[in-house]
Design goal:
By secondary structure, the protein is α/β, with parallel strands linked by helices. It has two domains: about 130 residues, Rossmann fold (3-Layer(aba) Sandwich); about 200 residues, 3-Layer(aba) Sandwich (Rossmann fold), CATH 3.40.50. About 35% of the residues lie in helices and about 10% in strands. A five-stranded parallel beta sheet has the order 5-4-3-6-7, sandwiched between helices. A four-stranded parallel beta sheet has the order 11-8-12-13. Strand 6, helix 4 and strand 7 form a beta-alpha-beta unit. It is globular. The two termini are about 35 Å apart. This is PGF-CTERM-anchored ABC transporter substrate-binding protein. Pfam families: Peripla_BP_2, PGF-CTERM. Keywords: Signal.
């Protein structure tokens, strides 16, 4: 087992997109929701990463596991992004997620069976089509559909409107509204918090250990390599600037986001001249944006002229969650630095868990998380291709405008 080092990587931030897809999912059965109350304590902040090194003493490992279990006892109270103290008297049996990164996290920490509702953008997850799709016909979620899932807990992204959160609470639901995440450490902390709220603490610690091990391996593999200059175009003139989750993945993989050279933050719209002046050596694309390499101004960049494009699954690149970090960093690191990573073996989840000394993984790396052809897989970036089948110019423009408005807010 390779040696793990503790390293803080300051990277990341998020974005949201909305696109229309058919509603799917079975209607949920009814159970009584857990009660919410107000108390005077925040309930504490759990460790973001959990143990990452191997336990040399079996008794210590057993003690750590027992402590982890004890830490997941209920009732529990936390203060969310709205300043509301959210209390769960018991482990929630029914959880509804309002964004795909929250759903992906639940799948990853062993909470899949608890999820009864999710958004259209999470339909790529294995078994998601048997859950209720709570997305509205346009943007956002349907309060009526969320209420209809009769959840014990609703996990809401920061980009959810105050009106939506209040409407759900007025309907008697327990809602935890997440704070903005801007670093990998924040993703880990959000995963830990999700695990604590849903009674999946051990699974959350394992997911974070796996994520951390892969990020550290990428850093070790590229430590002596020169960072490549990369850019992620969204289409419609929009790019991913610094201080975003996408930029974080580029940096963790041994790259630099050229948008930062112009102090471009968030998801700004730039003209063709600026793109050519930035002259990225690498372009990062997804199946939604790969068409851009054949269009100006990107076709005239050094990246395209030298065939230096890296294609990443849009699920991973656009949804801040542990598996997203692992898969994005792996793909980008190999794409940016093929020689440096030729013999590198990234840690499997089983290896990361073995290093923790806690036994069998709660969820495994081979756990199926399927990719579909639906345009429903984006937490952050819009599907901006106007030439693809089934995606008209008007919808493309609306999606880009929606991204420009919503990219400033965390999902």
């Amino acid at each position: 087992m390779r040696r793990r080092r503790t390293r803080t990587l300051v990277v990341a931030a998020l974005l949201l997109v909305a696109a229309a897809v058919p509603a799917v999912g079975a209607a949920a059965a009814t159970t009584a929701p857990a009660t919410a109350s107000t108390v005077s304590t925040d309930g504490g902040t759990p460790s973001a990463l959990g143990p990452t090194g191997p336990a040399t003493d079996p008794a210590s490992a057993t003690g750590a596991a027992s402590a982890q279990t004890a830490a997941c006892e209920f009732p529990v109270t936390f203060t969310d992004a709205t300043g509301t103290e959210v209390t769960l008297d018991e482990r929630p049996d029914r959880v509804t997620t309002l964004n795909p990164s929250a759903a992906q996290t639940m799948w990853e920490i062993g909470g899949k069976a608890q999820v009864v509702g999710l958004s259209q953008f999470a339909l790529y997850l294995d078994g998601a089509d048997s859950r209720t799709n709570v997305s509205a016909s346009g943007f956002g979620v349907s309060v009526e559909k969320v209420v209809g899932t009769n959840p014990d807990l609703v996990l809401a992204p920061n980009a959810s409107s105050a009106e939506t959160i209040q409407s759900l609470r007025d309907a008697g639901l327990t809602v935890y509204h997440f704070r903005e995440s801007t670093t990998v450490d924040d993703v880990a902390a959000k995963t830990t918090r999700t695990g604590r709220l849903t009674g999946n603490c051990e699974g959350a610690a394992e997911a974070n250990a796996w994520m951390t091990a892969n990020v550290e391996t990428a850093g070790e593999a590229t430590a002596d390599a020169e960072d490549v200059r990369a850019l992620y175009p969204l289409g419609g003139g929009y790019v991913a600037g610094s201080g975003t989750f996408i930029s974080a993945m580029i940096e963790a993989a041994g790259g630099t986001n050229v948008a930062a050279e112009r102090d471009l933050t968030g998801y700004p719209q730039i003209n063709d001249e600026v793109v050519l002046e930035l002259a990225p050596d690498y372009l990062v694309v997804t199946d939604f944006s790969s068409y851009l390499v054949g269009q100006e101004p990107y076709a005239s960049t050094p990246a395209v002229q030298n065939n230096n494009t890296v294609r990443v699954n849009r699920n991973w690149l656009n949804q801040p969650a542990p598996r997203s970090v692992v898969m994005s960093v792996r793909t980008l690191t190999r794409g940016f630095h093929p020689d440096a990573t030729a013999t590198v073996e990234f840690e499997t989840r089983a290896e990361a868990v073995a290093a923790m000394g806690t036994g069998t993984p709660t969820a495994t790396e081979s756990q199926p998380i399927t990719d579909t052809t639906s345009p429903s897989v984006v937490d952050e970036t819009p599907a901006t291709e106007t030439s693809g089948p089934g995606f008209g110019v008007v919808l493309a423009v609306l999606a880009v405008l929606a991204s420009a408005l919503l990219a400033r807010r965390e999902q």
